[in-house]
């Protein structure tokens, strides 16, 4: 197989920039709205604040989860995917038009879903667990968002296919390969939630079905829900593997290792949803055990990533003259926010990942499940590791797309933003972890639980969460300010789109990495092996389904 330059770079036209920026702008609007909801939540949970105008806590919590967990992430990721594909394999006029169709379908779906939540007709949280029922427009809106995201993924696949036709026998650019894996993962995973929404939730919420199979709906949700977290994580890994080395003046440690870790994510991120259902009755413990084993397999590509990044950092630091055991560390560009923000994200993933391993361990899950520990876990992983990396990407991507420069002043402001985020999140997420270990529940408004003894131990940590949450909200305001500056007001100029090349002495990438049929085949076999029997069992042996509950109960 011929080796192509890893840094194959194509110019991005104004029309393309407009498309990519549209996706990314929705993400930043979502950040502001979702962040404000987060602030209200921590205030309510401190016990010192009640929501005005009869606004319901669970309505606010639903906006927070849906808009940050589903809207912000999906739009930013699709905008980032398109930029990477546009830069490495190109986009045709027709593909761009279809990408706009995807965007508007997603926007329509988002508006439908958001309206139902704001009208108080869908306070069902982002997991929309049955038997809580939302207005049908909530589910229809979600289905539209998913359909739009599929269309965007199909465009990405066709972009790679066109490139491959024109470059027969060459390996695909690393970033295009990674985007293809992530869109495949998303498509296969979201089939589960699409089936739940179309076959179960929509007919049930419209009144065509009287009851719903609760266990089946949750199983289909988590079939989607866990790979969802890797759909968030992999774009961060794309930046860690292929962008950060260029920013620090280094090279990619190994193209093959990076591809292998992405392929392993495709295999192991989907057949593991039961680790979210370890306390759920109705699923045989053998199948839970099998999926826990597979969960431990999905840790391996993250450990490979950690190893590869350490290697890149050390090699680059030493090349720059770093001496001794840790001298290389000082040579990293600490004053460059494009590096610092994602680096803090990497550091946060060390305790974040360790927390995940605790969650996945069956016995320990019994201690933390449904406590606010889990909320602490995902604020470290998605809200710190992933978000700080997305911010790090924004500092070069937005000026690149807008034909502007990241000025030293904005760089400094970005560093302050990253520090504020780190301090706020350390306080908030730390307090959540500890309160969770003391039994504090998640997904719940403030309550004194009839003056129970245990509750006293939680109050101090809930206050700490309010303090951490307030600091974080300041971080959000600052980030939105930087986004506006970078988009509209930063001086005109050219900002680099930093794509790294591989170390010269790395082994060539084996051709079998392009064997997509093999990767998809193994993924499907693993999914069928982990899910067929338990899902049949759930369908055949579930108790009678549940009638709907509307929130507030008795409405
Ligand atoms: Fe998780 C619950 C298990 C990773 C997000 N997780 C959640 C929920 C979310 C979430 C949103 O098994 C809540 C869902 C809900 O609403 O109920 N999680 C794991 C495991 C991992 C993991 C095993 N989670 C993530 C990531 C997320 C995320 C990533 C978002 C992006 N999680 C669980 C389980 C639950 C759960 C259970 C259910 C709990 C329950 O009972 O409800 C693993 O993927 C983690 C592996 C990661 C590592 C870390 C590798 C470290 C790296 C950094 C290297 C640092 C460097 C810095 C290089 C092993 C790669 C260099 C430093 C120098 C000094 C130079």
Explain how this protein is built.
The chain has a two-stranded parallel ribbon. It is mainly alpha-helical and 555 residues long. Helices cover 71% and strands 1% of the residues. It contains 15 helices and 2 strands. Heme-as binds at residues 127, 229, 232-233, 275-276, 295, 298-299, 302-303, 305-306, 309-310, 313, 346-347, 349-350, 353, 356-357, 359-360, 365, 369, 374, 377-378, 381-382, 386.
Q: Topology, pairings included?
A:
Blueprint lengths: L13 H33 L10 H32 L4 H26 L13 E2 L2 H31 L7 H32 L8 H34 L7 H14 L16 H35 L7 H4 L6 H24 L1 H7 L3 H31 L5 H30 L15 H37 L26 H26 L7 E2 L5
Bound molecules: heme-as.
What is the distance, rounded to the nearest whole angstrom, between the alpha carbons of the first and last residues? 65 Å
SSE arrangement, N to C:
HHHEHHHHHHHHHHHHE
Largest sheet: 2 strands, parallel
Number of helices: 15
Catalogue the ligands.
heme-as
Q: What is the typical, i.e. mean, pLDDT?
A: 95
**Share of β-strand residues:** under 5%
Shape: globular
Radius of gyration: 23 Å
Quick take:
The protein has 555 residues and is mainly α. The chain contains 15 helices and two strands. Helix 10 runs antiparallel to helix 12.
Supply database-style keywords.
globular, disordered N terminus, mainly alpha, 555 residues, binds heme-as
């Amino acid at each position: 197989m011929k080796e192509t330059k890893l840094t194959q770079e194509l110019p991005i036209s104004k029309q393309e920039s407009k498309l990519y920026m549209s996706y990314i702008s929705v993400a930043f609007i979502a950040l502001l709205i979702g962040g404000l909801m987060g602030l209200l939540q921590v205030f309510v949970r401190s016990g010192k604040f009640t929501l005005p105008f009869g606004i319901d806590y669970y309505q606010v919590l639903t906006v927070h989860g849906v808009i940050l967990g589903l809207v912000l992430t999906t739009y930013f990721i699709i905008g980032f995917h398109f930029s990477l594909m546009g830069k490495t394999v190109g986009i045709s006029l027709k593909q761009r038009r279809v990408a706009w169709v995807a965007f508007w379908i997603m926007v329509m779906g988002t508006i439908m879903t958001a309206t139902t939540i704001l009208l108080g007709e869908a306070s069902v949280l982002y997991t929309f667990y049955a038997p809580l029922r939302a207005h049908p427009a909530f589910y229809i809106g979600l289905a539209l968002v998913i359909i739009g995201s599929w269309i965007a993924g199909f465009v990405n696949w066709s972009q790679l296919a066109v490139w491959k036709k024109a470059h027969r026998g060459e390996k695909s650019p690393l970033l295009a390969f990674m985007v293809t894996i992530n869109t495949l993962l998303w498509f296969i995973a979201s089939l589960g939630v699409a089936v739940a929404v179309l076959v179960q939730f929509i007919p049930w919420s419209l009144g065509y079905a009287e009851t719903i199979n609760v266990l089946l709906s949750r199983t289909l949700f988590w079939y989607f829900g866990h790979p969802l977290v890797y759909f968030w994580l992999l774009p961060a890994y794309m930046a860690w593997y292929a962008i950060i080395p260029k920013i620090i003046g280094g090279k990619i440690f190994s193209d093959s290792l990076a591809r292998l870790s992405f392929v392993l994510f495709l295999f192991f991120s989907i057949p593991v949803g039961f680790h979210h259902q370890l306390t759920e009755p109705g699923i045989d413990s053998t199948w839970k055990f099998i999926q826990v084993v597979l969960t431990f397999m999905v840790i391996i590509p993250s450990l490979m990533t950690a190893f590869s990044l350490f290697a890149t950092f050390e090699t680059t630091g030493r090349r720059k003259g770093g001496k001794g055991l840790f001298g290389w560390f000082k040579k990293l560009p600490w004053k460059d926010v494009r590096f610092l923000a994602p680096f803090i994200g990497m550091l946060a993933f060390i305790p974040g990942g360790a927390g995940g391993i605790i969650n996945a361990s069956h016995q320990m899950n019994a201690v933390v499940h449904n406590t606010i520990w889990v909320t602490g876990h995902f604020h470290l992983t998605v809200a710190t590791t992933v978000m700080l990396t997305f911010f790090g990407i924004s500092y070069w991507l937005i000026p690149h797309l807008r034909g502007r420069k990241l000025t030293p002043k904005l760089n400094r402001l970005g560093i302050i933003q990253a520090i504020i985020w780190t301090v706020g999140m350390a306080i908030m997420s730390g307090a959540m972890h500890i309160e969770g270990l003391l039994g504090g529940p998640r997904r719940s408004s403030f309550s004194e639980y009839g003056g129970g003894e245990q509750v006293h131990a939680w109050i101090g940590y809930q206050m700490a969460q309010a303090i951490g949450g307030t600091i974080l909200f300041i971080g959000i305001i600052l980030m939105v300010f930087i986004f506006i500056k970078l988009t509209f007001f930063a001086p005109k100029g050219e900002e680099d789109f930093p794509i790294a090349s591989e170390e010269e002495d790395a082994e060539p990438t084996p051709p079998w990495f392009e064997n997509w049929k093999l990767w998809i085949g193994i993924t499907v076999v693993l999914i069928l092996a982990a899910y067929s029997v338990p899902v049949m069992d759930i369908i055949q042996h579930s108790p009678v389904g549940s009638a709907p509950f509307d929130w507030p109960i008795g409405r």
